[in-house]
Amino acid sequence: MRRFHILFLCTHNSSRSILAEAIASTHPSQMFIAHSAGSSPGMAVNPFAAELAMEMGYPASKLRSKSWDEFEKTDSPKMDFIITVCDSAAGEICPVWPGNPITAHWGFPDPSQVTGSDEIKRQAFREVMMGIRLRMDLLASLPLGKLDSMSMQQELKKLAQPSI
Question: Which Pfam families match (predicted)?
Answer without folding.
Answer: LMWPc
